[in-house]
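Tokens in:
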């Protein structure tokens, strides 16, 4: 049998497995797997460096399925190449507890490089991976030792091209000259509501030219030779990222569904699956049966691919022998625990001793961290001078200076967060991203993916309340803290002073399985007696009453903790002995034992007031039915911060009055 025939059968195996799994589940999206199977096969079988025996090999090529609804395309590849997905896993597509969920989930299924589903997200995460690769190349590669040298492939369709996040990411990718990023556009002119011309008539090729991409086009998406030539041309351009538009038919091979919108998101139907088999000349009518010669073909490709890693391992051995100092650095980047050293770093915990904005404190802390943690990498959405996230003497990452560690994301908050995810997913770097807190509305969808993927990306979100002042209600966050706190597996910090800011950074850098947000002030805050490492419990007693059972409890975060301390003094003059609890991170407080939480907030003390210059949403669990809240009930106003706090009734007197009223 000629290779042409076995390749056709191997491509069709992807299609058949996808159609069978979706039909059995009676749920799924067959259109993309049927149309893009030749593209995926060409990439995985003819171009990608990957080793199913070691899916986490550091120098593997990455493949991101941005059109995550087409997950059966990826699962079929992982099964056929021997990544450990069994035929039973394929049969259990979309079933509870299976390794083949409806959309690909990072950390759940071996070989899945990113959690995708929200269209365009994979495009931006792939951009982050390519940024990480380019930076790590500049850090580690020596003449004759290209130890970091791989491509990032990302596949998506018309929906991914329509989403704004792709525009943001690829504008940056072109600016940065990410020549090892290869975008594969499954161009079939169909979206859920019908032909794409109802809402999408732009010249996508021209757009990518404007971004600074090499643009290529394959007219026949079934022609693996033409697809292969385009990928070779993409690899040959060492100055620009590449965009390959591949014209396909959605639902290819299924006579009744090919080219129709109905192929996108519903099973083909039993009769149509049978017709697909007949049309493709598939030899078995039984579901989930793949001929042995197809398995053998995939297995032989996988075995040949293993040589890439063997060669790399040999190269690394010589590299480390020649440059022993680079082995130490490599270990720090990929396996390091340097951040844990900050726990005993006096400078880190005592960075300032005078009133200072927590954004300023964070900026000083970042510049301590970067001397201890060599793989810190991050920046802001054109706001580093305001968010104080610039690392001195670490250079700017750019096309010309890829060794720089400061990222200029531009005014692109949504893709910035996704790119941060991609940088983390690549491995080797500790990413952080930054913008004003009110713009966490733009950040949130990709922060949610961080939480889903258990990706410890750090979000630095400054200008945290009406304390922003004159910029007014468009820039004054009100409901955003509640929004982020509502997200599972996402640790939201609002520190009250320098020590709590240090605790927030320490937690963010050492937490292995969740992202963190540091919500920081523009205005100066006093340094508080009693704050410190106890903040690593999320909530703690800052100032206690003299009684075993306090008369009242005041709970506060961030800039309002100092108001709570003042209110305690006022109450003392009225014969009320109150406890002040600082709650920099509700999520972390909830992780503590019931005994500890009871010791801080004893149930018998029902006279409680929470104070926070944001919405009250979410505070009910801590103040209860008898408690009161001092904070915002609507949007802010444009005026100096010093006028706004008293205008909105957020003062020490108001807190004391809430207790005694």
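Residues out:
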């Amino acid at each position: 049998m000629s290779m042409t025939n076995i390749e056709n059968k191997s491509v069709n195996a992807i299609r058949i497995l996808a159609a069978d799994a979706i039909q059995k589940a009676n749920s799924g999206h067959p259109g993309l797997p049927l149309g893009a199977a030749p593209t995926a096969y060409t990439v995985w079988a003819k171009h990608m460096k990957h080793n199913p025996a070691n899916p986490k090999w550091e120098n593997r090529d990455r493949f991101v399925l941005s059109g995550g609804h087409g997950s059966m395309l990826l699962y079929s590849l992982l099964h056929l190449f021997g990544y450990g997905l069994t035929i039973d896993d394929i049969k259990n597509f979309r079933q509870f507890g299976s390794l083949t969920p409806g959309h690909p989930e990072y950390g759940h299924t071996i070989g899945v490089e990113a959690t995708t589903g929200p269209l365009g997200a994979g495009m931006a995460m792939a951009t982050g991976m390519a940024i990480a690769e380019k930076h790590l190349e500049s850090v580690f590669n020596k003449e004759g030792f290209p130890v970091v040298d791989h491509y990032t492939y990302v596949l998506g369709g018309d929906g991914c091209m329509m989403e704004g996040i792709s525009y943001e990411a690829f504008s940056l990718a072109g600016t940065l000259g990410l020549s090892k990023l290869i975008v594969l556009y499954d161009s079939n002119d169909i979206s859920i509501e019908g032909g794409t011309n109802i809402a999408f008539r732009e010249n996508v090729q021209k757009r990518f030219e404007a971004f600074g991409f090499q643009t290529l086009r394959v007219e026949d998406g079934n022609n693996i030779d033409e697809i292969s030539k385009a990928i070779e041309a993409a690899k040959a351009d060492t100055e620009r990222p590449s965009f390959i538009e591949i014209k396909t038919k959605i639902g290819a091979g299924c006579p009744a569904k090919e080219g129709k919108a109905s192929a996108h998101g519903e099973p083909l139907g039993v009769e149509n699956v049978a017709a697909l088999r007949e049309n493709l000349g598939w030899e078995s009518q039984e579901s989930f049966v793949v001929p042995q010669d197809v398995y053998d073909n995939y297995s032989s490709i996988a075995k040949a691919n293993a040589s890439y890693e063997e060669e790399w391992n040999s190269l690394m051995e010589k590299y480390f022998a020649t440059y022993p100092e680079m082995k130490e650095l490599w270990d720090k980047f990929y396996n390091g625990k340097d951040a844990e050293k900050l726990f005993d770093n006096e400078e880190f915990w005592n960075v300032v001793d005078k009133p200072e904005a927590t954004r300023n404190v964070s900026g000083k802390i970042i510049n301590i961290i970067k001397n201890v943690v060599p793989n810190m990498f991050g920046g802001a959405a054109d706001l580093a001078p305001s968010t104080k996230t610039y690392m001195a003497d670490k250079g700017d990452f750019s096309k010309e200076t890829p060794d720089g560690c400061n990222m200029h994301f531009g005014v692109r908050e949504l893709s910035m967060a996704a790119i941060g995810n991609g940088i983390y997913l690549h491995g080797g770097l500790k990413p952080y991203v930054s913008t004003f807190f009110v713009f966490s509305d733009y950040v949130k969808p990709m922060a949610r993916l961080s939480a889903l993927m258990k990706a410890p990306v750090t979000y630095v979100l400054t200008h945290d309340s009406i304390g922003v002042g004159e910029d007014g209600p468009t820039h004054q966050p009100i409901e955003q803290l509640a929004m982020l706190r509502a997200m599972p597996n996402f640790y939201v910090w609002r520190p009250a002073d320098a020590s709590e800011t240090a605790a927030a950074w320490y937690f963010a850098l050492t937490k292995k399985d969740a992202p963190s947000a540091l919500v920081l002030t523009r205005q100066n805050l006093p340094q508080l007696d009693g704050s410190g490492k106890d903040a690593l419990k999320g909530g703690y007693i800052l100032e206690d009453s003299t009684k075993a059972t306090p008369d009242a409890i005041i709970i506060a975060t961030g800039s309002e903790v100092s108001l709570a301390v003042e209110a305690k003094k006022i109450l003392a003059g009225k014969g009320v002995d109150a406890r002040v609890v600082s709650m920099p991170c509700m999520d972390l407080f909830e992780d503590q034992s019931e005994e500890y939480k009871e010791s801080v907030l004893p149930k018998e003390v029902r006279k409680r007031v929470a104070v926070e210059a944001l919405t009250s949403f979410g505070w009910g669990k801590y103040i209860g039915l008898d408690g009161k809240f001092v904070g915002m009930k609507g949007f802010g106003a444009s005026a100096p911060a010093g006028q706004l706090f008293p205008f909105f009734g957020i003062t020490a007197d108001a807190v004391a009055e809430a207790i005694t009223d």
